Amino acid sequence: MFSTETNYEVITFSIGDTKSGTKMGKLQLKEVESGEILNCILWEETLNRLDSKLYRCGNILRIVSGSFNEKFNNCLVSSLELIKEAKTGLEETERNSIYAELIEYINKIKDDKLRTFISEIYTKNKEALLIAPAAKMMHHNYIGGLLVHISECLKYADANMAIFFQKVNKDEVYAACLLHDIGKIFEYKIDTASGLIDYDETFRKEWISHSQYGFSICMNAGFVRVARMIAAHHARTDWGAIIDLNEKDLESYLYIVHHLDDLSAKFGKTNVAMLG
Q1: 88-119 as b/e, with b when 16 or more CB fall inside 10 Å?
Q2: How far apart are CA 79 and CA 46, in angstroms?
């Protein structure tokens, strides 16, 4: 039964348009004690009345008033109470520290042309990199999340390079880790006050995805193997990959960045609430 004492964690939040042209919020909550999922709808009047900071991923909320269905797994929400506010992401000093780590990895690249290419991208887009999330909801969805995700991929690469990656070019693996998600600094936008993340519609009109962006800039610069690793890192075309890893007779190096990326997405700090 519904109780105003039940605590819920915010999992996802998005705003869309109804057929009548008004705004509608979709809020997915998880009951803290049981882990059960509750899908909520908020009409435009409620969205206008409530503070948008309530919907930050990781927040702990209570439903003050709402109409539940018979199974109590859907709710039309009219009022919410914030119990515990989640962090929006990493502190500025933490972000700058991780950015410096990534620059160290860039400087490890021996190929002058490749090192200069990546260094210029990172220097030009430093401010965007410092705040960018790695996803809207699936993993590292907080301020500085992209830095953490890239760092984890590079560290996983180091841990496996001597054992599994002996026949691949270390420069190219580093480069692919550093650039596989670089398009996300344009694909997503994050409100640094609320921590809410959404897609940048301008980017989505010009590009298919961040994978296409990373693949394109590397191909245009002549780094074909790096581009192909980026093209394959989502593994399947229906997951956004340009090269589907289910194809036969693919070069073994194409699998590397996918597995590094997947490890980080699954075992890294998948939600801002896990930052403490």
Answers
A1: bbbeeeebeebbeebeebbeebeeeebbebbe
A2: 7
State whether the Cα torsion 156-162-164-166 is positive or negative. Answer: positive
Distance, first Cα to last Cα, the chain: 30
> Can you give the pLDDT of all 276 residues of the chain as single tens digits?
556 789 999 888 888 899 899 999 999 999 999 989 999 999 999 999 999 889 988 899 999 999 988 777 789 999 999 999 888 899 999 999 999 999 999 999 999 999 999 999 999 999 999 999 998 877 898 999 999 999 999 999 999 887 877 778 999 999 999 999 999 999 999 988 878 888 888 998 888 889 999 999 999 999 999 999 999 999 899 888 899 999 999 998 999 999 999 999 988 766 666 665
Instruction: Please check whether residue 66 is in contact with residue 40, taking contact to mean a CB–CB distance below 8 angstroms.
Output: yes
Token pair 């994978």 is found at: 211
CA distance 232 to 214: 11
| Residue whose C-alpha is closest to residue 13's, from 38, 45, 49 | 38
Largest CA distance in the chain: 64
SS3 of 17, please?
strand
Stated pTM of the model: 0.82
| Nearest-10 Cα torsion for 184, 190, 192, 194 | -150
